[in-house]
Amino acid sequence: MSADGGWYTVIGLWVNDVPVVVGVIEGNHQVTGGDDVSEALYAAQGAWALAVEAGDATEAEGVAVDEMTDTLE
After folding, report:
1. What is the 3-state secondary structure (H, E, C) of 3-36?
2. For residue 13, how many other CB atoms are within 10 A of its CB?
3. Secondary element (H or E) of residue 50
4. Is 44 exposed, middle or buried (0-12, 13-18, 19+ CB in 10 A)?
5. 25: Cβ–Cβ under 8 A, 6 or more apart, which residues?
6. 57 near 22, Cβ under 8 Å?
């Protein structure tokens, strides 16, 4: 990856209407599944995944949370 960053796939869960990150993977990946995750695990709100461009994994996490939060407005 370049020093300028790249693509990251951020995976998370909705908990009390807040997007909570559970993992960040370097690269732009297709994510499927997660519908069978126990309701108790994700408070019946669902899983989400989003590919974002960022300088590093930490920045990608913040960008994804901001974008997912914007979907609530």
Report:
1. CCEEEEEEEEEEECCEEEEEEEEECCCCCCCCCC
2. 18
3. strand 47-54
4. exposed
5. 8, 9, 10, 11
6. no
Q: Which of 56, 55, 50 is nearest to 68 (CA)?
A: 50
Residue 12 pLDDT: 92
**Residue 1: its pLDDT value, please?**
47
Place of tokens 């997007």: 19
Q: Is the dihedral of CA 13, 39, 45, 37 positive or negative?
A: positive
Is residue 57 within a helix (H) or strand (E), and if so which, with residue range? helix 57-70
* pLDDT tens figures, 15-64: 888 999 999 999 999 887 766 655 555 455 778 899 999 999 999 999 99
